[in-house]
Amino acid sequence: MSLPTMFVLLSGKTYMFKISNVGLSTSFNFRIQGHTMKLVEVEGSHTIQNIYDSLDVHVGQSLSVLVTLNQSPKDYYIVASTRFTKQVLTATAVLHYANSKAPASGPLPAAPSYELHGSMQQARTFRWNLTANAARPNPQGSFHYGNITTTRTIVLANSASLINGKQRYAVNGVSYVNADTPLKLADYFNIPGVFSVNSIQSTPSGGSPTVGTSVLQTSLHEYIEVVFQNNENTMQSWHLDGYDFWVVGYGSGQWTADKKKTYNLVDTLTRHTAQVYPRSWTAIYVSLDNQGMWNVRSAIWERQYLGQQFYLKVYNAVRSFANEYDPPSNILLCGKAVGHHPLVSLFTYVIVLVI
Question: pTM for this one?
Fold first, then answer.
């Protein structure tokens, strides 16, 4: 973990800081000695502009804050330290007022306590600024995420197990292994034996963990609830390719349908990555409007590499360019797809005739 060594800034001015966690495995807390931070953006969503002394940033996440240089002109420490780890690692930098005559001094600004509740409470205060002029899903207002009935609930539980004597990580009891044929090609050409949509269930199975090329099938235009259930003592961070989603709830212990009463169905953020606290759950709503094969994975690289991922197949039986284009005729083929050729569609002929 590292920070630039010094920021030279003008007294009385307000600056925007973009803070990103591009690490492999660990959440961190960010703070600036003697200064507060006004949160203005989280992963593309304009937020209600709350003031914070420090902010937790989890793996794969980013946010933007405004900092006003309204203190005595001197140097101040900028600190990032790991969260929820036995050994706390700390990186420091210096906020240098342009007319500073004194170096940074005194103790580093203290980190929050280890306990999880405060971090979860902070996460709940990240709320959408519904009056901001910003691009966001459904800007015309034809629906609101909290007023739509979800079509199904998928519960995803991460686990760490030994499989065949080796450390693996799994989702609902299945540890992902890569196939020798890209899944999208296997799906397009209907090649058997590459993956099965029955290899992973939509709720935890409770059986012995296995390995497999896990694909979970859903339908195009479904509106689904996904619950990430973390029964381990480690922080988790989840990412979904191809979509953003509404993070509607966080809670401790086991998720049950009764927990829906605690959801924020008014002004939660759309995000691309969601943290899940130890022995806790996080719930999201997703509008499946993007057909294809989409990777759902741990943002913690060790876990992702060793199987904590799967593919979400968003499917419609009717082939239509409104949903998805055909692959190009010069597509590179490998694995079991070698020898197959993309279908030349009527759309291609029409373009040729027009030209």
Answer: 0.91
What is the amino acid identity at position 158? N
Across the range 38-56, mean pLDDT stands at 96
Estimate to the nearest angstrom the gap between the alpha carbon of 254 and the chain centroid: 21
Give the strand order in the sheet containing 54-57. Answer: 6-9, 90-97, 75-82, 28-32, 54-57
Query: Is the alpha carbon torsion for 351, 352, 353, 355 positive or negative?
Result: positive
Greater confidence, 187 or 320? 187
What is residue 9's three-state secondary structure?
strand
SS3 category, 350: helix
Buried b (16+ CB within 10 A) or exposed e, 261-294: eebbeeebbbbbbbbbbeebbbbbbbbbeebbbb
CA torsion 103-27-29-87 (nearest 10°) is -70
For every residue of 152-194, DSSP letters joined together read: EEEEEEEEEEEETTEEEEEETTEEE---SS-HHHHHHTT-TTS
- Average pLDDT taken over every residue of the chain: 91
Beta bridge partners of 160: 169
Give the Å distances, CA to CA, from 125 to 19, 42, 119, 148. Answer: 18, 12, 10, 23
Compute the C-alpha angle 180/182/185, nearest 5°: 125
Going by C-alpha positions, the residue among 203, 216, 182, 197 that lies closest to residue 296 is 216
**Does residue 131 register a pLDDT over 70?**
yes
Weakest mean pLDDT among 56-65, 296-305, 323-332, 340-349 = 340-349
**In the prediction, which pLDDT does 133 show?**
62
Q: Model confidence at 192, in pLDDT bands (50, 70, 90)?
A: very high
How far, in Å, CA of 53 to CA of 110, rounded? Answer: 10
Rounded Cα distance, 1 and 289, in Å = 37
Categorise residue 34: left if φ over 0, alpha if ψ from -120 to 50, beta otherwise. left
